[in-house]
Amino acid sequence: MRVQLNKQLSISKIVIGCMRMNDWKLSTMEIVQFIEWCVERGITTFDHADIYGGDHRNEELFGEALRMQPSLREKIQIVTKCDICVPNDKNPGIKTRFFNTDKQYILTQVNESLDKLRCDYVDLLLIHMFDLLIDPSELNETLQQLRNEGKVKYFGLSNHNPLEFDALQKYTDIQFVTNQFMLNPLGIENYLNGIMTHCLKAGISPMIWSPLAGGRIFKPDNPKEESMKNVLEDIRQELKLETVDEVVYKWIFRHSSNPAIVLRTGKKERIERAIRSASGEEMTREQWYKILIEAGYKLW
Ligand SMILES: NC(=O)c1ccc[n+]([C@@H]2O[C@H](COP(=O)([O-])OP(=O)(O)OC[C@H]3O[C@@H](n4cnc5c(N)ncnc54)[C@H](OP(=O)(O)O)[C@@H]3O)[C@@H](O)[C@H]2O)c1
């Protein structure tokens, strides 16, 4: 199952998020085998960011696997992100969190990501968060340069609201091919603020992160979350699914923008359930709205 982001670039509907890959404690060979296992199942897209992992090392872990098995590179799509600056041991000068979209900073980060990933190019670069100090004309110059140098094939945004997305798009003829943002039954703010609907207006498919609310779907810690778990469980039984994660994925996939989901798990049986949920019986409108209303959406 694929999501076509533009005429040339398609990503798998299930994307492997590499944010916690360091916690999986895999050897380089095991990462190679994991990527191969994913590719055999049609999961070809891997989501990174320059800041993922302890000491920001997750791109490097992935790159070591690509060095061991270079033939994998052409079989997969690599997504990475930049613009978040956080205090860390590598950059002792940074004392507080901020966003940076200055040309020199983005060019440096992309070069570092390519070094760590041991790649000549990434398929998709996302601006991680909206930088309130952004100079959109300068961003346009930066993206044009990265494209002309062949270092980045396509560009998108992440966590940008419709106004922010449209404001940046106005300054560049490079089409942003996606917006990556959070959505799950415990967090529907991106339905409330119009980001999901904006995907239809912009003609893009979103990449949804935190589909399982970081695991809170399974471990409710207040009555509201408990109540949502019960609704999901009822629908699981109606659809005869194995577990509620499949219900959540089907709920996300039901939107006409054809979303992809970005998983964080490295557990194969959980990934296989996500694959299954992308096909088979769809959720009914009534079931879909039941979840939305339980999540706090007021129809009128
Ligand atoms: N663009 C952005 O700003 C942004 C921000 C955050 C994340 N992301 C991306 O999105 C990815 C997804 O991260 P997320 O935290 O948002 O993911 P998530 O899928 O909502 O949550 C993952 C958590 O759910 C647990 N889980 C999964 N299936 C489960 C099951 N069947 N039973 C119990 N627990 C289960 C996982 O545990 P196990 O690991 O033990 O399976 C993991 O702790 C990240 O890797 C990253 O690539 C992007």
UniProtKB/TrEMBL annotation:
This is NADP-dependent oxidoreductase domain-containing protein. It comes from Paenibacillus stellifer. GO terms for cellular component: cytosol. Gene3D superfamilies: NADP-dependent oxidoreductase domain. Residues 13-290 form the NADP-dependent oxidoreductase domain.
